[in-house]
Structures are given as structure tokens and as C-alpha cells.
Amino acid sequence: MIRKVLVPIAAGTEDIELSCITDVLVRGGVDVTVASVMMPPAETVVLARKLEIKPNTHISQLSEAQWQSFDGLLIPGGMPGATHLASSGPLKLIAKELLARGRLIGAICASPAVVLGPFGILQGIPLATSYPAFRDKLPPGTAWVDERVVLYKNVLTSQGPGTSIDFALVALSILCGREKALEVAAGLLVPPPSLLKSKV
Which part of the chain is the DJ-1/PfpI domain (predicted)? Predict the structure, then answer.
């Protein structure tokens, strides 16, 4: 069965993180939907380093049946992209629904603190990571851990652009199995992240 993942973006989303997440997942056979949250909807979105891309859709155009079909939600960081994502009512609704269904929820860079925290996704999650500058912005009860990728239950967090391939590979392992993630890592000529070595 083909796995499906939603990747939301906004003006100021981190270019490398978006690219790595989508590239790794697609290499692993995942059906990725990149959805803008910007209002009013526009044909393109300008990322943090001024790369202009055309998303697959706008988040408001996803039907309830569509977003309930996602096996995961992976949120790139970057500023002010994370702030825009945090202000999206539809994204919050989707995140909370997918969490309740036990689906994978992941965020990297600023987004664990700026998006997952305010959405209530980190409630009951004792350990997470983020871009170091946001370590003190995680919600009470969630301790910041200096690890490239942190997985607790179905919540996955990571630190930034330099950890985005690891983040995506661990997500792929959860969605499609460890062997598929190792296969993609080998094709990319990158060492498997430590969580893969411990058989996620």
C-alpha cells in the first residue's frame, strides 16, 4: 500500500528542509502532497532563501476524506514560515486529527516549538528537539534534547537543515520500513541515522 504524507509550507519555509523531506520520501515510494497555507491562496510560494515553488495544492482545498487518508504530517521549519504555519486553522485541525488517529506527526527546526507546541501536539511528550535557538520555547513538560532526531511515540522532531535527511529517513522508516529507509540512505551516499541503526 502506498503511504501518503502531507507537507505544509508557507512563505519563509526553510528550503533545504522542504527539499530533503520531499525528496527522501518520494525516493522511498511515498505519495507526498505539498500544501500551501498562505492566504489568499497563490500559485507559488517564496521560501526562506527566495526559492519560488509551486505547491501541489492549498490546504483549504483538501477535503476531510483527503486529509484523513494521510499516514503522516511532516512540517518543515524556517522563519517566518513556521509562524505562518502555526496560524493556520486548517493545519491545526489536521494535525490534531492525525495525532488522534495515531499517525506520524513530525516537525523540524523552529516548528517543534512554534507549531507543534501551540497546537498541543507535544502535550504528554517528555522529550523533543528543535533548532537550538528555540530550545527554551518548547512547552512546559517537554524537555529539549540535543539529538539530531528524537522520536517519542508517534511524534518525530529534528534540529535543522543539517539534520533534515536524517529526519526524513527516520520518517520513511516508520512509514515504509527500516529496509526501505536503508536502501534510500545508500542511494544518497549518507550514513544511516542512529535511530535506524537501533531498528526504529
Answer: 3-172
